[in-house]
Amino acid sequence: MHALAPTVPSIVSALASALAPGALITDPDVLAGHARDHAPTVPAGRALAMVRARSEADVVATLQLAHAQRVPVVPRGAGTGLSGGANAIDGCVLLDLSRMDRILELDAPGRTATVEPGVLNGALAEAVRAAGLFYAPDPSSRDISTLGGNVATNAGGACCLKYGVTGDHVLALRAILADGTPLAVGARTRKDVAGLDLKRLLVGSEGTLAVVTRITLRLLPAPPPRATLIAFFDTLPAAGAAVDALVRGEDLALVELMDRTTLGAVEAMAALGLDPDAAAMLLVQSDARDAEQVVRRCEALAEAAGGRDGYATGDADEGRMLLQARRMALPALERLGTPLLDDVCVPPASLPAMVAACERAAEETGLTIGTFGHAGDGNLHPTIVHDATDPASVAAAERAFDAIVHAALTLGGTVTGEHGVGLLKRRHLAEALGGAERALMGRIKAAFDPHGILNPGKAF
């Protein structure tokens, strides 16, 4: 997949000499186990070696040697990605940052945290909670995904409706350019317009421009306990009308949706008392000061839009349990076959049309497609269940995937809201972006990485 790699002994021996014992891995089985993320349909190549970095010095040494020898480097964290962005390419060095996992500073008065890229999202959330603070971005993988990976894809989550995505909470980054040059961008201040916003350029760049080694994040005061509402709908347009009324009228942390297929799969797995015959379920949470009153008003709005069997609770533990039902969506659908998870985002008003497009794709291909996601901001995750051992089923899944992405673009949306492009969606960029835009991205890539060694072939 890459023609620039030299003979194995050259780069491997150079790394072995430069790194501490144990940092360089060449065991073929270990390399194979780290060759891909969780995207099942995109290719993964064979790496020459893997560096388990424990410090910025390891990152600098690896990049200096790789740059000198024109060896591709693929950065990776926990490998929880869903687009093939961390997949190995032939002849590459995998640069594993997961062991750079220290919380370097927790500045409670300044409401910031500075971390290494291997810190887990959930671990930071727990650490700052003990200080009465709150780290908002909450991808479903928060307990197992790294903050470096979250920065690489500009990850979101359920709370994006109120709190925004990862990039909205990144104050500053330290990163290493492809030739080993350190780069410091952003500032701990609340305002910073000194020069071009290189920090924002690195966030979401999927490891193609630089390797992030330190992240300074904005923290918030801990919000009040959440109140929760669930409601069921017999039609998708009714659910869409409810979403529109809810997000326009109330202070909500999240509005999550599960369609009939997803409801059935979750109920079959966990027997939670959900209605598998409903066209959709909405789960709403508020962390406003008057959260219980907010969800009571939401219950009335949902009922006015056609919702039924609404259940509201101000008990935070019960709310967490109900949200866990939504987080079970992907594991429940995985029980039905191999999942091909999509990630599209449309204007919230187009949500019913987007879900209907997913249903059409299921009908036309004969596959099971469960749709769930962050309805409040229009970000859906249609999950195409197929048989990965059957070429016809794989081909049908890819047709369904393409149809869903095309529908999102037709509805004024984007091909990816929070999972990134990686390898999975590169072929869709021609439809999503113009030639001038893609050419400009290429020139930016060349400015950061003139020899093209950082995660080549990914993202754009």
- Helicity range: 25-40%
| Largest beta sheet: strand ordering | 15-12-14-13-19-20-17
Instruction: State the separation between the terminal residues, measured CA to CA.
Output: 16 Å
Evaluate the radius of gyration. 22 Å
- Please tell me what the overall shape is: globular
Total strands: the figure is: 21
Strand content: 15-25%
Per DSSP, the total helix count is 16
Largest sheet, strands/sense/barrel: 7 strands, antiparallel
- SS-derived structural category: alpha+beta
Low-confidence stretches: 1-8
What's the pLDDT, averaged over the residues?
A: 95
Give short descriptive properties of this protein.
460 residues; alpha+beta; seven-stranded antiparallel β-sheet; five-stranded antiparallel β-sheet; 21 strands; 36% helix; globular; disordered N terminus
Explain the overall architecture.
The protein is α+β, with helices and mostly antiparallel strands and 460 residues long. It has 16 helices and 21 strands. A 7-stranded antiparallel sheet has the order 15-12-14-13-19-20-17, with helices on both faces. A 5-stranded antiparallel sheet has the order 5-6-10-8-9. Strand 8 and strand 9 form a beta hairpin. It starts with 7 loop residues before the first helix and ends in a 12-residue tail after the last helix. The N terminus is likely disordered.
